[in-house]
Fold this sequence. Notes:
Largest sheet: none
Shape: globular
Amino acid sequence: MPSSASDMRSGLFWFLTGMRGILSLPALILMTSFVGFSAFALESGITRDQAVFMTLAVWALPAKMILIGTMVGGAPLAASFLAVTLSSIRMMPMVASIMPDMKNDRSPTWLLLFLSHFVAITSWVFAIQHLNDVPRERRTAYFGGFAITLTLINALIVGVCYGIVAQFPPIVAGALFMMTPVYFFGSIWASARHSVVKLAFLLGVVLGPAFALVSPDFDVVYAGIGGGTLAYLIDRFVIRRRKPPVAASPAGEIGHGEQP
Length: 260
């Protein structure tokens, strides 16, 4: 049986190993995108403290964009709440998919709930790629080292860059501003595993500006619900019906090249 001191050293080792993941390309892209988020917050009238708090509390970059967009557009509080909630619901399958692989018999519930706060696209992809290479009893430490460190660094980036981007030339500030929606589009598209998700995304891009002209206060909500519902109906009744059914092999029949 390893000693408690040995357990602590081992846990610290895997926590520090997870921290090194912030040097990976997805993490670096996300950190650069938070520089753009600083410009976005500044241009939208969000204070430095509010932007840092949002980074720590909301965490997912698309959810922060939606929240600021509804606030700037003058949407009611209930509409902003609903829009951010609908955006964040997509994290639930991510949490459900990695938590069984992350926990062990000794993992306290409070720790799993705490770590679930840090699950977003970047941390989820990182976990999917690397958790299987980590001993099960050390996976919470490994994931925590990566996700917590990335969150804190992004909050620091927002706090430091918020004042700096105001001094940049307009063309540079504009380029940084555009990095946030570019990351938003790229991350959502790259994380989509099914055609219905990509279809909903494209419909949302088209319907968003249209609803902004019709109902500016609820454009994000209408585009999200309407685009998602329409994408489901198209996928359910059009795309799936065009796919040829998979022929089932007769019972007991051995396919070509198979061994009995």
